[in-house]
Amino acid sequence: MKIIEARGAPNPRRVRIFAAEKGLDIPCEGIDLMAGEHRSDWFEKLNPYGGVPVLVLDDGEALSETVAICRYLEALTPEPALFGREPLEAARIEMWNRRMEFSLFWPVANVFRHTNPRMAALESPQIPEWADVNRERAGRGLRLLNDQLVQSDYVAGGTFTIADITAFVAVGFMKPARMALPEGLGHLARWYDAVKARESVAQAGI
Predict the structure, then answer these.
(1) What is the pLDDT of residues 111-166, one digit of tens each?
(2) What is the CATH number of domain 2-76?
(3) pTM score > 0.90 for this model?
(4) Angle at the Cα of 8 from the Cα atoms of 7 and 13, rounded to 5 degrees
(5) Which of 65, 98, 184, 191 has the fewest other C-beta atoms within 10 Å?
């Protein structure tokens, strides 16, 4: 199998870190989003919605959507369990992963898409006011994440999970979105440095 991705995009980063945590070395094939390669006939046959990453299996079947790909990899390689083991643990991780997506990951992505001039070809029209709304949402998401990390080492509790991957990629993507990390978020900064030091992050090329 192989992963088709755009190297700098945030969702492929999530999958690369997840795969590295599992010890999986999956070949990656890059496409050029700015050149519209995700709208080409061959790519639309794999994912008509045009998003990356796409996991192409050995029999040619293609899986898209980040969490779906990660769940497949989790089923193939259950340890370490990044979606949890017991029902309550799994539900808690799902809850926090969704919170990180809605309160942080997508707001940061929207700031980037609606303010970066290079994204004008992909995001038309760009709406600066929508970027402002999402910048405020991301700020609130960062504060809530910091509050959560007062009481736990990781986003969903005492172990590293997919929720940490989602949040870590979101915070890291603030740099290309030209968003500064607010002051006074010491617990978030401690957590971010700890995740950044993980071997999986280095292996994912982030």
Answers:
(1) 999 999 999 999 999 999 999 999 999 999 999 999 999 999 999 999 999 999 99
(2) 3.40.30.10
(3) yes
(4) 75
(5) 184
